[in-house]
Structure formats: C-alpha cells, structure tokens
Amino acid sequence: MKDRDRYLKIVEWSDEDNCYVGSVPGWIGLCCHGNNEKSVYSQLCRIVDEWIEIYRKDGRMLPPSTSGKKYPEKFQLCSGNDLNKVSAVNNLTA
C-alpha cells in the first residue's frame, strides 16, 4: 500500500468549470482539473505524493487517514465564498 492510499480522493464533474476537478477532503482542496476523469485522478495522486514528500522533508506529521472510514449518509458541502449555497451528497459510505 502506498501512503497516498490512506486518503480519500474525489474526482467530480464541475458544471461551473465545465471539467472534472480533484480534491482530498480535509487536507487538499480543489487542486487539479481536466476533461478526462482518469487523467484528473492521476494528477490528484501525484499531488498527494508531492504533499506527502513535502510534509516528510519538513518533519511534519501527515494528516490523519481518511480512507476506509464510514461516512454519514449525508454530507454538507460548501463551495466558494457563499456559504449559504449548500449541496447534499446522499448515500455516500466508504
């Protein structure tokens, strides 16, 4: 297992950006984008690897693992500066 496998990675379509965007919830916000879902996931994995390397070089502890955990059936997601715009993701479990 690679260290990056300890972190939940999300690639989703953004209507606003008209492309796929990738993020690592609780650690790395939206950090990559593209027109191909698999390509964005590959970019996201490389970014996580780079952040892990940076943390290690700086002698910092990595954030707690986010993979393999049970999540509530409903997430409240806030985007942009307008926190009044909230969307729900139903039935998302690990």
Q: Which labels suit this protein?
A:
two-stranded antiparallel sheet, 94 residues, globular, 5 strands, HicB family protein, TTHA1013/TTHA0281-like, disordered C terminus, 1 helix, alpha+beta, 22% helix, three-stranded antiparallel β-sheet
Describe the 3D structure.
The protein has 94 residues and is of the alpha+beta class. The chain has a domain at 3-67. Helix content is 22%, strand content 30%. It has one helix spanning 37-57, and strands spanning 10-14, 19-24, 28-34, 74-78, 86-90. The strands form 2 sheets. Strands 1-2-3 form a 3-stranded antiparallel β-sheet, covered by helices on one side. Strands 4-5 form a two-stranded antiparallel ribbon. The longest helix is centred in the middle third of the chain and has 21 residues, at 37-57.
